[in-house]
Structures are given as C-alpha cells and as structure tokens.
Amino acid sequence: MSDIEPRSGRGPSRRQREQRAYLLVLASGGLALAAVVVFVLWIAGVAGFGLFLLLAVLAALAGFVLRRTLRP
C-alpha cells in the first residue's frame, strides 16, 4: 500500500461497463424470449429441442456475463 495512486490500465471505464451491461441485457432478454418461443414451437412439433437448448444455454451464459459485469 505504499503507492496510493490509481493504477494505469485498470480496466474498462464506467461508460464502457455501462454500454457492455446494456448490450448484455438486450442479448440475454432477446435470447430468453427466443428460447420461450422455440419451446412453444417444439411443443407444437414445429421446431427441434436442440435449438431450444442452444438458445437457453446462450441466454444463461449472457446472464452470467452480465452478473459478472455488474459486480463491483
């Protein structure tokens, strides 16, 4: 703790973190909505379960990355 100056290259700025969080909210919400629609189509026999599974995993991954972005 001898150096109390802020470190250079600390990471993304507040504005960059805000933009990333916004895009992740849009991505995770869109993927979750698409997963629900594909799930309903799968029940109706129109779409495959694999597509639903892929969308659900991507939505969960986007939500996980969003949580990490919002962590202080």
Task: Summarize this structure briefly.
The chain has helices at 14-44, 49-70. With 72 residues, the protein is mainly alpha-helical.
How much β-strand is present in the residues?
A: under 5%
**Overall helicity:** over 70%
Q: What's the rounded overall pLDDT mean?
A: 90
Mass-distribution shape: rod-shaped
Number of helices: 2
Give short descriptive properties of this protein:
single chain; 72 residues; mainly alpha
Could you give the topology of this structure?
Blueprint: H1 14-44, H2 49-70
Helix pairs in contact: 1-2
General description of the model:
With 72 residues, the chain is mainly α. Helix content is 74%, strand content 0%. The protein has helices at residues 14-44, 49-70. Helix 1 (14-44) runs antiparallel to helix 2 (49-70). The chain is rod-shaped. It starts with 13 loop residues before the first helix and ends with a helix. The mean pLDDT is 90.
